[in-house]
């Protein structure tokens, strides 16, 4: 059971990583590079290619939440891996 939990966390980690990077890529390509007060896109974020784009506060929160979730999953995976290693259970079973 613990092995499947770790494998599920790895799959979730890469899924959230893909989502966060896809969202950043979308913002980099589709959001304005100058503030647009009329559309309320005045919050700057750093996109790919060293480009600053402007989004709404809700879009920034969505972007930040994706990266915080990604980091949180990584932390949980490492913590559980250490805990399971102490008890002799891991993803790879020794022969």
Walkthrough of the structure:
This protein has 95 residues and is mostly helical. The protein is built from 2 helices and 2 strands. It has helices at residues 2-30, 57-86; strands at residues 43-46, 52-55. The protein has a two-stranded antiparallel ribbon.
Q: What keywords describe this structure?
A:
62% helix, 95 residues, 2 helices, two-stranded antiparallel sheet, mainly alpha
Provide a concise account of the structure shown:
62% of the residues lie in helices and 8% in strands.
Helix content: 55-70%
Assembly classification = single chain
User: Which spans of ≥5 residues are poorly predicted at pLDDT below 50?
Assistant: none
Average pLDDT across residues?
90
Q: How are strands sequenced across the largest beta sheet?
A: 1-2
Gyration radius (Cα, Å) is 18 Å
Decide which structural class fits the backbone: mainly alpha
Taken as a percent bin, the fraction of beta residues is 5-15%
H/E element order: HEEH
Q: Which secondary structure elements does this structure contain, and how are they paired or packed?
A:
Blueprint: H1 2-30, E1 43-46, E2 52-55, H2 57-86
Antiparallel strand pairs: 1-2
Helix pairs in contact: 1-2
């Amino acid at each position: 059971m613990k092995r499947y939990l770790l494998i599920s966390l790895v799959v979730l980690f890469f899924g959230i990583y893909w989502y966060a990077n896809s969202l950043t890529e979308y913002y980099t390509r589709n959001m304005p590079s100058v503030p647009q007060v009329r559309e309320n896109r005045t919050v700057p974020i750093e996109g790919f290619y060293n480009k600053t784009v402007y989004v709404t506060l809700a879009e920034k929160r969505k972007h930040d939440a994706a990266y915080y979730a990604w980091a949180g999953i990584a932390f949980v995976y490492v913590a559980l891996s250490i805990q399971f290693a102490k008890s002799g259970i891991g993803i790879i079973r020794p022969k």
